[in-house]
Specification:
single chain; two-stranded parallel ribbon
């Protein structure tokens, strides 16, 4: 009787471990199966995280890895209505790259909406489409300074993009990059 109980106990333990390892192997991805992702951010623990991701417009390809506040302002519009304006830097990853996008989120009467999305990819979404030329230039400068401060190797990455034949740039991007001392190409395609 003791022998049968011991064998039954042993069988249950082995079966339990087998089920545990089988579920654990299939239920979670291993490091080998995950995308080769390495954040390029310098010390992200010092950045203020944006946690209200439901307010962000749907993302294209890639997964949102993290979101950080670039600028957070409380404003009053000409009609006297107060609102909150938040610029958010998104770190988006796919299996081969990491990109950084700036989203502008507006909070009014307890609701939020995204009113600008632009990425740091090859084809920018000009900020001036939403902010106007003067404010667009200032916004682009703030965004470029944020990337220079918090993204490892950003200056080199941007200069590499500028060194390509006929890069695609917006007016405010050209203006901001000149302010920051980049070597600008003689010719580029302007996106409006």
């Amino acid at each position: 009787m003791k022998f049968k109980a011991a064998i039954l106990s042993f069988a249950l333990i082995v079966t339990g471990f087998g089920v545990f390892f089988l579920l654990n192997r299939n239920g979670q991805s291993t490091k080998a199966s995950e995308p080769k992702y390495r954040s390029m951010l310098v010390n992200p623990t010092r950045l203020k995280r944006f946690t209200d991701v439901k307010c962000l417009a749907p993302l294209g390809e890639g997964d949102l890895r993290d979101a950080f506040i670039v600028r957070d302002l409380n404003k009053v519009n000409p009609k006297g209505v107060s609102y909150r304006d938040v610029w958010v830097a998104l770190e988006i990853v796919d299996p081969v790259s990491v990109t950084y996008s700036m989203y502008a989120v507006d909070y009014r009467k307890g609701e939020c909406s995204t009113y600008y999305t632009g990425d740091s990819g090859e084809v920018p979404n000009p900020i001036s489409r939403v902010f106007g030329k003067k404010d667009g230039r200032e916004a682009q400068l703030i965004w470029e300074k944020w990337k220079l401060k918090y993204v490892n190797g950003w200056r080199e990455r941007m200069q590499k993009r500028l060194n390509r034949p006929m890069p695609i740039l917006s007016d405010e991007e050209v203006w901001a990059l000149k302010q920051l001392g980049y070597k600008m190409p003689k010719k580029w395609q302007e996106i409006k």
